[in-house]
Specification:
alpha+beta; 14 helices
């Protein structure tokens, strides 16, 4: 009885603290509400990689801590950390809009938060900390440097260099590999989806393999294993661990730090830490820690980020459903690693199916065999794509 009371009190306490944290984050707005609907002239810097979509260009514009989504002409093309001045009418996002930007999309989830009426654009942007938009303002380079402060300036400088390396690597891949293969390689290595043809996206969507086109937990697992395995040849295990921590953090930044990538990185680093320091690793504790940290930093991901929900549901399926299925079907022959791969894929598919049906109204019945055929080849595709880009 005491344990039940303690459990109820603990759940109530977490619920209250969570509600307070959510309301606090929801109230953080640095631009006066009186500016909405008014023509404004704002000076700030570009806080994302600009995304080219045909004749349009989208980027996140940071002004006094406020993140504003700007849609403007494709040219001149801007870069991350450029100081710019924008003149236009400041708007609130419309509840439903035809197409969203992948700037705030999750890597292994469909690109929009859809409702029965279309796209819930307001909540879609809210999870990225975006409350306002500027639609085709007059944008020009700001001729002077802005004082960003030490930490914000350091962050901007680090991100700028990381994205510069990313752009060079993408260019090398594009020169080395024909399309649409180059777009596919950039997707699975760097999380870049904007150049992937619509027909290829649709093909992956119909077969329930959309997560393959972008960075997901599976990709992070491959990369963290490869980095640590390579470093152990040259360094002691603990030194190799700390170097791999830096590499994975830089990689998370490079790919856009989507919910699935951050979750996989946290769990991967905890596993590496356990191996490096001789500690026991518990998947359940690991996923709880990763989820709690992410929700505390950004409470909106729990409610508004479909990628967050799908990613954690898939991992929970692996943790709880896989052992159950494996124990019930223990007589099935292993057939190499085919049995394990099939049961793990089935567990993840069962766990995410309710969310997919709820949000998108469909579930691909051929997703299980498709993923079983595809997943074993992803490490080879990533390795050969990386080598091609490096050689290029």
């Amino acid at each position: 009885e005491k344990k039940i009371i303690l459990l109820v009190v603990t759940i109530a306490a977490f619920f209250i603290v969570g509600a307070l944290r959510f309301n606090q984050a929801d109230s953080l707005k640095n631009l006066p509400e009186q500016l909405i609907g008014q023509e404004v002239v704002l000076t700030g810097y570009i806080d994302s990689e600009p995304e080219i979509d045909g004749t349009f260009q989208r980027f996140i514009f940071r002004v006094n801590g406020e993140r504003i989504l700007v849609t403007t002409n494709a040219y001149p093309k801007y870069k991350f950390s450029d100081f710019v001045e924008a003149k236009g009418e400041l708007e609130l996002p419309h509840p439903v809009r035809g197409k969203t930007s992948s700037l705030t999309a999750s890597a292994d989830a469909p690109e929009a938060h859809r409702t029965s009426n279309g796209i819930d654009y307001t909540t879609y942007l809210k999870k990225g900390g975006i409350n306002t938009i500027l639609f085709f303002p007059e944008v020009s380079k700001y001729p002077h440097n802005l004082d960003l402060g030490f930490w914000e300036g350091l962050r901007s400088s680090v991100y700028k260099n990381i994205f510069s390396v990313k752009e060079k690597f993408q260019t090398a891949v594009n020169l080395s590999i024909p399309e649409p293969n180059a777009a596919f390689i950039n997707g699975i290595l760097l999380g870049s989806r904007q150049n992937i043809p619509d027909d290829l996206k649709e093909a992956f969507n119909k077969t329930g393999a959309t997560h393959v086109l972008a960075i997901s937990g599976y990709n992070i697992m491959i990369i963290s294993w490869a980095v640590l395995a390579g470093l152990i040849w040259f360094f002691k295990r603990r030194v190799a661990f700390w170097i791999s921590v830096v590499v994975i953090i830089l990689f998370v930044i490079l790919t856009g730090a989507s919910a699935s990538v951050v979750r996989a990185a946290v769990m991967g680093l905890l596993l590496s830490f356990a191996n490096g320091y001789g500690r026991l690793y518990d998947q359940k504790n690991s996923i709880i820690l990763a989820g709690a940290a992410m929700v505390w930093i950004n409470p909106f991901v729990l409610v508004f980020d479909i990628g967050f929900q799908l990613s954690f549901a898939a991992v929970l399926g692996l943790i709880y459903l896989y052992p159950f299925i494996d124990s019930k079907l223990y007589k099935v022959p292993k057939l190499g690693g085919l049995k394990e791969l099939t049961f793990m894929t089935l567990s993840a598919q069962i766990a995410v199916a309710p969310l997919l049906i709820y949000y998108f109204g469909n579930f691909s019945i051929i997703s299980l065999p498709t993923n079983i055929f595809i997943l074993p080849f992803i490490p080879a595709a990533m390795l050969t794509g990386f080598l091609a880009g490096l050689a290029g």
